[in-house]
Amino acid sequence: MPPTIRYVVTRTALLGCLMVAGCGESPTAPGPRPSSVEGSWSGTVTDQLRGVGQLRFSARGFDATATGTFTLSFSESGHDLSGDVTVSSTDQPTIDLFFRARGAPGCPTGEGSVLHARTALDGNRMTGTYRDLLACGSIGGGSLEATRR
């Protein structure tokens, strides 16, 4: 082959290889976003039966769901709760929290109380109301306010 034809063939082959290599990989889709409620929260509840209590919970998750643990303490002994929390933010700025307490006072053996809170999220602050879904009698429901730490 004359040098000019060899040059054209080599360059064309090299260009073809580069184009195939560039097209071989597809871009990676972005991963799930951290939940808007991820983090550690603390605040107070004002319960119809137990008065003012201290609430602490932490949650981790992606997109619209987060899970974690919580503690709820009252000054009156024997009514403290702890367990798991599931947070749903599919209807933002409204946030739904489900607190599942292990061995809650007043609940049948092996049952845990389940509290549902419906709150409004405003940056690092959420406020709303909650109620006891199983009506175990240890918690009366009321208001909740928490701030992300």
Task: Write up what this structure looks like.
The protein is mostly beta strands and 149 residues long. The protein is built from 1 helix and 8 strands, in the order H-E-E-E-E-E-E-E-E. An 8-stranded antiparallel barrel has the order 1-2-3-4-5-6-7-8. A hairpin with a 6-residue loop joins strand 3 and strand 4. The longest helix has 21 residues. About 7% of the residues have low confidence.
What is the mean predicted local confidence, pLDDT?
Answer: 81
**What structural class do the secondary elements suggest?**
mainly beta
Sheet with most strands: 8 strands, antiparallel, barrel
* Count of DSSP H/I helices: 1
Q: Can you give the helix content as a percent range?
A: 10-25%
What is the beta-strand fraction? Answer: over 45%
Distance between the termini: 74 Å
Low-confidence stretches: 12-22
**Going across the major beta sheet, what is the strand order?**
1-2-3-4-5-6-7-8
The secondary-structure element order is: HEEEEEEEE
- Radius of gyration, in angstroms, nearest whole number: 27 Å
